[in-house]
Design a protein that fits this description.
Radius of gyration of chain B: 32 Å
Number of strands of chain B: 11
Shape of chain B: elongated
Number of helices of chain A: 7
CATH topology of chain A: Rossmann fold
Shape of chain A: globular
CATH class of chain A: Alpha Beta
Oligomer: heterodimer
Order of helices and strands of chain B: HHEHEEEEEHEEEHHEHEHHHHH
Bound molecules: adenosine-5'-triphosphate, magnesium ion
Distance between the termini of chain A: 19 Å
Number of strands of chain A: 10
Structural class of chain B: alpha+beta
Strand order of the largest sheet of chain A: 6-7-8-3-9-10
Largest interface: A-B, 30 and 26 residues
Order of helices and strands of chain A: EEEHEEHEHHHEHEHEE
Helix content of chain A: 25-40%
Number of domains of chain B: 2
Distance between the termini of chain B: 29 Å
Radius of gyration of chain A: 18 Å
Number of domains of chain A: 1
Largest sheet of chain A: 6 strands, mixed
CATH superfamily of chain A: P-loop containing nucleotide triphosphate hydrolases
Number of helices of chain B: 12
C-alpha cells in the first residue's frame, strides 16, 4: 500500500481500569497506523481488549495515556461536545447485537443520525432511502427491527452507520450473531460499500478465516498488547 | 438536536410506554387537582369569611378620627404634641387614605339617632348611610325588594327587626313612604360661607352651628335580615339604611359634632369628624392602620382587639399552602420515579444515541422535555379535575345545607390566577423533577450501556 497520511494513528495508547488494588490493563501501550480506505481486522481472544480499543477510536472512551489522531484530529483534545460531533460526522458504528431501537421503524432508525447531525428535514427522506437502497432494504421501510432477520437487521444497522457518510466505520463483531453464510454476505456488502464510498473500516472479530478473507490487514491483540500484524491477503 | 426533533423524540418515547407515562401524567393531574381543590376551598372560605365579615363591617374597617377629637368632653388630648397643630381630617387626607395599598374605599361614617314617622306614629331608630359598594359586599344578598337606585336617592332599606316594629307584615312595607325627622346642622352666619359647596360630605363647620329640625320622605325599597351596618364605637346598629350620598346631604347632626364645637380650626376646608377606611381583607387591616397612624391620625379597628383572628387567617393560609404542596410533592415523586425507571429501561437506547453522536445535552434535554410534557398535560388535566372537584364539593356542601334548611354557600372558588398558577407550578415542578433523572441519563457511560449482556 502507498504511504499516505494515516486515517487513524494510535501512539502508545493505554486504557487501564483500576479496581481497588488491582488494575486491569485492557489496552496496553498499543501503537498502530491505519491507512485511509484500509480494511483492518482486530483479532484476539476474549478479554484481549478489542472492544476497548474500538471504543477509544470511537471517542466513547478516553485513553489513560497515549494519543489517538483520527483524520488529523487529536481525539484527546476534544471536548465532550466536540467528541459527540466527531462520532456523529466522522464515525459510523455497528455492533454484534445490531442495537437498532426496537420501537422505531427502519426508516426512523436510519433517520436518527440525521436528526443528531441536524440535517435539514427536507433532505432526510432521500438520504434515508439512499442508505437503505445501498443495503437493499427499501421495501421494508415501515417495518420494525423485530420483524427482520438478523442479517437484515445488521444491514439496517449498516445503513444507519453510513447515512451521515462517515470516513471511518467501526464494527464490533458484526457477524457474531449471524450464521456463517449471512456473516459472509454482510462482509461482502461492507467491502462493496467501502470500494463504492471510500472509507476506513476497523472490524473486531473472533473469526480468523473471515478476517483473512475480507480484511487487508490483521492485527492481533493479547492481554491488551499488540501481538502481531500481518497483511491478510499475503498470508499463505 | 433541534427543538423539533427533540420534541418529536420525546413524544415518541412518551407514546412508547403509554401506560406508564399516562399513569404518571395522571399522577401529576391528581396532584394538581388536589392542589387546586384544596386551594379552592381556601380561597372560597376566605371569600366567604371576608364576605361575612364585611357584612358585619367589623373586621375589615378602620375608623379614623383626627387627633384633636377628644375621647371625652373635657379630657385633655392624650398625646399633646405641643406647638404643632394636629392634622385635620379633610379631603386631602381622604385622598391619601384611598391611595394606600389594599384600601377598597374610604367613606365618612354617617349614623345618627333620630325619629321616624310612619302611619303618624313615631319610632326612634338609628339611621346609617350605606356606601354604594356595600351592595356587593354580600350584606344585601337575599334581601327583600332591591338595593338603592342611586347613592342620592331618597330611599330606605329597613332592618327586619325595625320593619317588624313598623308593621306586622314587613313585606307590605315595600313601596311605602316614611317620614324621617332629623336635626340639620346649619353653619352660623358669622362663620365661613362656603359650606354649601360640599353637600356630599358630613362636614364640620369651623365656627359652630345651629340645629334646625327637618323632615324628609323616604320610600321603602327593601328589607334585610342581616345587619349590614352593625357599627362599633358606641354608635349602635343602623336599622334604617339610606344611600350614603343622600344621608350626608342631610347634614344631620351627629354625635361627633358636639365634639367639633370645642375644636377651633382655622381651615375653611371640609373636614370630617371620622372616616371609615375599608381594607380588601381583614389580614391587611393592621398595615393600613399603621400607615394611617403614621400620617398623624387616630385609627381604630376591631382587629386590634382580635389578634387571634389574624393568627387564624395566617395559619389557615399556611395550612392550605402546606396541604396543597404535599399533593404536588407526591406528584413530583411520581415523575422522578417514572423517569428514573425510564433510564434503567432505556440504558441501551441512551448508549446507542450517544454512539450515534448524541451529546450529553441532547440526552438531558430529551428527558427534560419528556418531564415537561408530562407536567404540562398533567397540569391541564389537573386544573380541569380540580375545578370539577371543587364544584362537586360546593354542590355536596350545598346539598347538605339544603337538607338542613340553610342557605347555600360558595364553598370553593377557582379564580383564573389559581388555574394559571397551578399549570405553571405543574410544569415547573415537573421540570425540577426531571432535573435529576435527566442529568443522570446524560452522564450515563455509553461504553457501559452498550456492553453486550
Ligand atoms: N468498565 C470496566 N471495568 C473493569 N474492567 C473492564 C471494564 N471494561 C472492560 N474491562 C476489562 O478489560 C478487558 C478487555 O475487555 P474488552 O471488552 O475490550 O475485551 P474484548 O476483547 O472485546 O472481549 P470479547 O471478545 O469477549 O468481547 C477485559 O479483561 C475486561 O474485563
Ligand atoms: Mg468485545
Amino acid at each position: 500500500m502507498p504511504t499516505a497520511d494515516p486515517a487513524i494513528q494510535l501512539d502508545r495508547v493505554s486504557r487501564h481500569y483500576s479496581m481497588g488494588e488491582t488494575s486491569v490493563r485492557a489496552v496496553d501501550d498499543v501503537s498502530l497506523s491505519i491507512l485511509p480506505n484500509e480494511f483492518l481486522s482486530l483479532l484476539g481472544s476474549s478479554g484481549s481488549g478489542k472492544s476497548t480499543l474500538l471504543n477509544l477510536i470511537a471517542g466513547l472512551d478516553r485513553p489513560t495515556s497515549g494519543s489517538i489522531v483520527a483524520l488529523g484530529q487529536d481525539i484527546a483534545s476534544l471536548s465532550p461536545l466536540e467528541l459527540a460531533r466527531y462520532r456523529c460526522n466522522t464515525i459510523g458504528m455497528i455492533f454484534q447485537s445490531f442495537n437498532l431501537l426496537p420501537r422505531m421503524t427502519l426508516e426512523e432508525n436510519v433517520e436518527l443520525p440525521l436528526r443528531l447531525a441536524e440535517v435539514d428535514r427536507a433532505e432526510r427522506p432521500a438520504r434515508v432511502r439512499e442508505a437503505l437502497e445501498r443495503v437493499r432494504l427499501t421495501h421494508r421501510l415501515g417495518h420494525r427491527p423485530a420483524q427482520l432477520s438478523g442479517g437484515e437487521q445488521q444491514r439496517v444497522a449498516i445503513a444507519r452507520a453510513l447515512v451521515n457518510r462517515p470516513k471511518i466505520l467501526l464494527a464490533d463483531e458484526p457477524t457474531g450473531n449471524l450464521d456463517s453464510s449471512t456473516g459472509e454476505a454482510i462482509l461482502t456488502l461492507l467491502r462493496e460499500l467501502q470500494s463504492k464510498l471510500g472509507m476506513t473500516i476497523v472490524m473486531v472479530t473472533h473469526e480468523r478465516p473471515l478476517a483473512e478473507k475480507f480484511a487487508d490487514r490483521l492485527v492481533t491483540l493479547g492481554d491488551g498488547k499488540l501481538l502481531a500484524t500481518a497483511s491478510a491477503k499475503g498470508l499463505p | 438536536m433541534n427543538p423539533r426533533d427533540l420534541t418529536d423524540l420525546a413524544f415518541r418515547n412518551l407514546r412508547e410506554s403509554v401506560l406508564r407515562n399516562v399513569l404518571t401524567t395522571l399522577g401529576v393531574a391528581v396532584g394538581v387537582a388536589s392542589f387546586v381543590a384544596i386551594i379552592s376551598i381556601g380561597v372560597g372560605l376566605q371569600q366567604l369569611a371576608s364576605r361575612r365579615l364585611s357584612e358585619s363591617g367589623l373586621f375589615d374597617t378602620i375608623l379614623v378620627t383626627p387627633k384633636t377629637n377628644f375621647r371625652g368632653m373635657d379630657r385633655p388630648n392624650p398625646e399633646p404634641e405641643s406647638g404643632k397643630p394636629p392634622r385635620p381630617l379633610d379631603e386631602d387626607a381622604r385622598k391619601e387614605f384611598e391611595k394606600l395599598p389594599n384600601v377598597v374605599e374610604v367613606y365618612p361614617q354617617i349614623r345618627f339617632f333620630t325619629e321616624v314617622r310612619f302611619n303618624n306614629k313615631p319610632f326612634a331608630t338609628v339611621v346609617a348611610g350605606m356606601p354604594d359598594s356595600s351592595k356587593n359586599s354580600g350584606a344585601f344578598d337575599g334581601m327583600q325588594g332591591r338595593f338603592f337606585s342611586s347613592t342620592t336617592a331618597d330611599e330606605a332599606i329597613l332592618q327586619i327587626e325595625f320593619a317588624k316594629e313598623l308593621s306586622e307584615q314587613p313585606s307590605s312595607l315595600l313601596g311605602q313612604d316614611l317620614i324621617l325627622r332629623y336635626a340639620e346642622r346649619q353653619a352660623l352666619p358669622s362663620s365661613t360661607t362656603s359650606t354649601d359647596t360640599s353637600r356630599n360630605s358630613a362636614e364640620a363647620p369651623t365656627g359652630g352651628f345651629s340645629i334646625v329640625p327637618r323632615e324628609l320622605h323616604l320610600k321603602i325599597v327593601g328589607i334585610v335580615e342581616t345587619e349590614p351596618a352593625a357599627g362599633y364605637g358606641g354608635y349602635g346598629n343602623g336599622r334604617l339604611l339610606m344611600p350614603l350620598g343622600a344621608a350626608s346631604a342631610l347634614r344631620a347632626a351627629q354625635v361627633n359634632d358636639l365634639r367639633d364645637i370645642v375644636r377651633d380650626s382655622a381651615s375653611n376646608k371640609t373636614t370630617y369628624s371620622s372616616l371609615s377606611v375599608r381594607a380588601k381583607s381583614p389580614s391587611q387591616v393592621q398595615a393600613i392602620e399603621d400607615s394611617i397612624k403614621k400620617m398623624g391620625f387616630r385609627a381604630f379597628s376591631l382587629l386590634d382587639a382580635s389578634k387571634s383572628l389574624r393568627i387564624f387567617f395566617t395559619v389557615f393560609d399556611l395550612l392550605v399552602g402546606i396541604f396543597g404542596s404535599l399533593a404536588l410533592a407526591v406528584a413530583t415523586l411520581g415523575i422522578v420515579n417514572t423517569l428514573v425507571m425510564a433510564i434503567l429501561e432505556r440504558r441501551r437506547e441512551i448508549g446507542v444515541l450517544k454512539a450515534l453522536g448524541a451529546s450529553d445535552a441532547d440526552v438531558q434535554q430529551l428527558f427534560f422535555v419528556e418531564a415537561g410534557v408530562m407536567g404540562f398535560l398533567g397540569g391541564i388535566l389537573g386544573v380541569g379535575f380540580g375545578w370539577v372537584l371543587s364544584r362537586a364539593m360546593t354542590f355536596g356542601t350545598n346539598f347538605y345545607l339544603y337538607r338542613q334548611n340553610l342557605n347555600p354557600i360558595e364553598l370553593t372558588a377557582v379564580p383564573w390566577w389559581l388555574a394559571l398558577a397551578a399549570l405553571v407550578i405543574a410544569v415547573l415542578v415537573s421540570l425540577a423533577a426531571g432535573l435529576y433523572p435527566a442529568s443522570r441519563a446524560a452522564k450515563l457511560n455509553p461504553v457501559d450501556a452498550l456492553r453486550y449482556e
